[in-house]
Amino acid sequence: MTAKMNQVMSELETLSASEKGMIAQYLIASLDDREDANSMEKWVNLAKDRYASLESGAVKSVTWEDMKQNILG
């Protein structure tokens, strides 16, 4: 490792778990330098479609407790 990398790694050890998580998110996001120009529009449309499905009764919501029970048993 480079001296700079060793310095960064040492400083990371002093951070809280929350701070480390934020840095991890930043690092992962920085790996992909391509941005899909339509991605925000796609997410908005997906959210609207899912909301409409809930409102129309086509799908039913599930509580967090029920989800945990189904996942963890």
Q: Notable features of this structure?
A:
mainly alpha
Q: Would you mind describing this structure in some detail?
A:
With 73 residues, the protein is mainly alpha-helical. The protein folds into 2 domains: 1-34; 39-72. The chain starts with a helix and ends with a helix. The protein has helices spanning 3-12, 17-31, 39-56, 64-72. It has 4 helices and no strands. The radius of gyration is 20 Å and the shape is flat.
Annotate the secondary structure layout.
Layout: H1 3-12, H2 17-31, H3 39-56, H4 64-72
Give the averaged pLDDT, no decimals. Answer: 91
Task: Compute the CA-based radius of gyration.
Answer: 20 Å
Low-confidence stretches: none
Major β-sheet, in short? none
Give the beta-strand count: 0
| Strand residues, percent | under 5%
Note the run of SSEs as H and E. HHHH
State the helix count: 4
* Overall tally of structural domains: 2
- Kindly report how far apart the N and C termini lie: 44 Å
What is the helical fraction, as a range of percent? over 70%
Shape descriptor reads flat
* Structural class by secondary-structure content: mainly alpha
Short summary:
By secondary structure, this protein is mostly helical.
